Amino acid sequence: MNRFIQIVLFLGIAVSSNAVAASDFDGSRPLVCAIAEVMDCGMDNDCVSVDPESVNLPNIFRMNFKDKEMSNGDRKTAIEVVSAREGNTVLLGTSEDHNKAFSLLLSHTTGKFTGSVAADDYGFVLFGSCITD
User: Fold this and answer.
1) CA distance linking residue 3 with residue 24, whole number of Å
2) What average pLDDT does the structure give for the chain?
3) Which range marks the domain in which residue 59 is found?
4) What pLDDT was estimated at residue 27?
5) Which DSSP string corresponds to 46-99?
């Protein structure tokens, strides 16, 4: 299934479901999230929009706050810091080989997120949204 169809289906489910409470996105419940846009930024280049899979990021992933883990099938990433305050949850971590770091800011009100992945000489900025699992 191509990326566009996955995101349309994901957003259709999110819109058609009942209204969600802000507490649904405060870290108390597992989430399913979709990356809507990725900007690929290099040290010497402008940022360009890319498909998540072209830079080894999943289109759709799960967040489990209790287990401090993000996953997509067999691939799992530990969340090292979870901090909820001021209507947002902040997630921080590093890759298993510690050569990349990530951050994510999730809105308790909307379920939308903005995130980043940083490495030595490149980075990605992510935009997306989540629904409860």
Assistant:
1) 26
2) 83
3) 3-132
4) 77
5) --EEE-GGGGT--SEEEEETTTTEEEETTEEEE--EEEEETTEEEEEEE-TTSS
Number of compact structural domains in the chain: 1
CATH of the domain at 95: 2.40.160
> In Å, how far from its chain's centre is CA 128?
6
Q: How many whole angstroms separate alpha carbon 115 and alpha carbon 104?
A: 4
Rounded-to-integer distance, Cα 35 and Cα 7, Å: 8
The residue among 131, 132, 105, 128 whose CA lies nearest residue 35 is 128
CB atoms within 10 A of CB 24: 16
Phi/psi for 4 (5° steps) reads -60, -45
What is the pTM assigned to this prediction?
A: 0.79
Would you mind telling me the total number of residues written for the chain in this entry?
Answer: 133
